[in-house]
Structures are given as C-alpha cells and as structure tokens.
Amino acid sequence: MGVRPDHRPVAFFDVDETLLADKSMVSFWRHWRTVWQGAGATGDRDGELRTAGADRCALNRAYYRRFAGVPAHVVRAATHRWYDTYRRRPDAFVAAGLEAVRRHRRAGHEVVLVSGSLRPVVERVAEDVGADEVCCTRQLVSEDGVLTGEVDRPMIGRFKAEAVAAVLAGRGVPAARCYAYGDHDSDLQMLRSVGNAVVVGGSPALRREARRCGWPVLSARPGPLMATGDHHVPAGVNQ
C-alpha cells in the first residue's frame, strides 16, 4: 500500500533576518576566525564577501569555498558552539517570524525552513522553532570526511523556488494553499511560487513588490527565542 499524500498546507520560511535577527553566515564567520587557524587569511573580518557584480548564488559558493580542507565534524562542532551562545541572546530572533511559525504550527500546517546558510545552523534553528524539514545549502564532503569547498547547490534565488516546488510535489499540496516568508529580493522567486507571500522587514525592492502585490509586511523587530512548543528533531534534517 503506497504512502498517502500529506495535503496539509506548508509554510516556508527563509532563516536569516526572517527568523534569526542576524545574518548567521556572517555571525558564524566572526566566531570561526577565532577558532580555526588560517581563517583570517581571507582578509575579510566579518565573512560578508564584497565581490562587485557577483550575484548571491556566486557569493554563497564563494563563502563555502573558504572551508575547503577542514574536517566536516570540526565545522559542525563550531556551528553548534556558536549557536548555543547566539540563541540565548535577547535579540537573537525576529519576533514576528517566530510568532508566524507558532501560528502555522497551531493551525496544523507543516513548517519548512529554506536557507542558504550552513546546514548545522539551520538544523538547530529548525529544532528550536519546531520546523518539520529543512532545505539548505549542502557542503560536499570527501571520502575521508573533509570539506571540499564545493556545495551541491546554493539555496538562493531560483534554487529556493525549486526546493519549494519539490516539497509540494512530494506532498501533493497545491501551491495556492501554501505560504512563504522572506526578507530579501533574492527570496522573490520563492515568495511568488506560493499563494500566500509574506515579507518580514524587507529590502527596499522587496517592500516595493509587497506593496504592488498586496503582500503583508511584518516587523523585523528582534526578540528572544522563548518557548515555541514541544521541540523535536525535524524529519528532514539528516537526509
């Protein structure tokens, strides 16, 4: 007997500056510079690449190339240490984003995080907020457990929209019944791929699009994690 499709609406959330108040890749890089010899050789103090004219997919790939040659378990442990400290801050999360997750969970909707950030970070955020699955950039690992510096695909722009489409196809859920939350114009394709788009804070370009389309705009005011209900390990985090 086949698996019955799950027709619950799905709410897709970007992570950085939609749920987390910071850019996690930048914040983690500052921490990484203090724990890994050679991390400072890039000359970039905060990890936010400033390659003129490069698109965000290219920047995402360039960020992960910095970890080439590092054992994957070392990066995972470092991300956990960073996040353990970060999540305790009173301004670590976006209050309206967290409340939106709570509303969807109370309504019985599935929650999926879609992010270009480091997978171990996104997994921890998913566990904290009670998300069901994550779709994020996956670093490639050699046979001896070392990061190659390459990724399968940067979970940015059109790749976010493709991930959303794949999730919905797998569950048999109409896109018109689903939701997406984002803060940057690079989230536009994901936002347009569902029936209910919501902007959190938002870049000027995204806010203009929200006004044009009649999308709600939520405050990006930061706040603490607080309680989000029963925590569980999301089904998709170890796939």
Automatic annotation (TrEMBL):
GO molecular function (one): hydrolase activity
UniProt keyword Hydrolase, yes or no: yes
TM region(s), chain numbering: none
Keyword Metal-binding in record: yes
InterPro entries: HAD-like_SerB, HAD-like_sf, HAD_hydro_SerB1, HAD_sf
UniProt keywords, alphabetically: Hydrolase, Magnesium, Metal-binding
NCBIfam families reported in the protein's UniProt record: HAD-SF-IB, HAD-SF-IB-hyp1
Family: Belongs to the HAD-like hydrolase superfamily. SerB family.
PANTHER family: PHOSPHATASE RV3661-RELATED, PHOSPHOSERINE PHOSPHATASE
Protein name: HAD-IB family hydrolase
